[in-house]
């Protein structure tokens, strides 16, 4: 599996490019801000890849800012949970007041082909099963994506040694705890985790070392 990342300059959000190997089809996940479409396209071209879909783990602007130029440029569908779809074109509703002040005068729009996902829906992409796992807590419509039971794209649900914040609009500490208990802990130790920020990790490492998961197992 070819897994490439480009941390966007603002908030160091990981944009993941995932493919079976060089010269194959690929997925683009969470292209952030400012506009990183040129940098992501350079990665695609360097490895002779063909984007076939884009995935959004949730509606926060640091994960969606570059989705329209990339998805429309490659003429590919974009997938997001139904609960967070509205924020792609209206991100102010999902952010705090301080951040919203920075959005004054900016306009946003959905990519041409934006599709809604719900919990447990499966996509057949790259010759793999891509399962959407609804994981509320960070936002109401947060998703994780499980690729062939081997790779978990966790977005801002699970980080190396931590979990996503729950104090922004539609966030919920109670729902985050339930997500960790019911959606993360049952996963196999061998699963590789591609996080929304910071280094990748594994379920095994987080189960043993992440204080939020350790507390739920005590």
Plain-language structure description:
The radius of gyration is 16 Å and the shape is globular. The protein has helices at 37-46, 61-64, 67-74, 86-89, 97-101, 173-184, 203-209, 211-217; strands at residues 2-7, 14-19, 25-29, 50-55, 78-81, 114-117, 122-125, 128-134, 143-147, 151-155, 158-159, 162-163, 192-195, 201-202. The model has no long low-confidence stretch (mean pLDDT 96). The N and C termini lie far apart (35 Å). It is built from eight helices and 14 strands. A hairpin with an 8-residue loop joins strand 8 and strand 9 (143-147). It has 218 residues and is of the alpha/beta class. The strands form three sheets. It has a six-stranded mixed beta sheet with strand order 1-2-3-4-5-6, with helices on one face. A six-stranded mixed beta sheet has the order 7-8-9-10-13-14. Strands 11-12 form a two-stranded antiparallel sheet.
């Amino acid at each position: 599996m070819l897994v490439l990342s480009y941390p966007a300059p603002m908030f160091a959000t990981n944009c993941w490019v995932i493919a079976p190997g060089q010269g194959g089809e690929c997925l683009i996940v969470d292209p952030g801000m400012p506009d990183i479409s040129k940098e992501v396209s350079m990665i695609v071209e360097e490895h002779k890849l063909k984007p076939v879909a884009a995935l959004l783990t949730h509606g926060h602007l640091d994960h969606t800012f570059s989705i329209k130029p990339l998805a429309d440029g490659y003429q590919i569908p974009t997938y997001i949970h139904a609960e967070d779809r509205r924020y792609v074109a209206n991100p102010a509703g999902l952010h705090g007041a301080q951040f919203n002040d920075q959005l004054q005068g900016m306009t946003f729009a959905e990519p041409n082909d934006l599709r809604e996902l719900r919990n447990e829906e499966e996509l057949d992409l790259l010759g793999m099963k891509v399962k959407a796992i609804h994981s509320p807590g960070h936002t109401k419509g947060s998703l994780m994506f499980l690729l062939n039971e081997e790779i978990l794209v966790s977005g801002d649900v699970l980080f190396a040694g931590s979990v996503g914040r729950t104090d922004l609009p539609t966030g919920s500490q109670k729902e985050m705890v339930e997500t960790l208990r019911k959606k993360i802990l049952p996963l196999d130790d061998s699963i590789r985790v591609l996080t929304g920020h910071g280094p990748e990790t594994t379920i095994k490492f987080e189960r043993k070392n992440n204080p939020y998961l350790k507390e739920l197992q005590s």
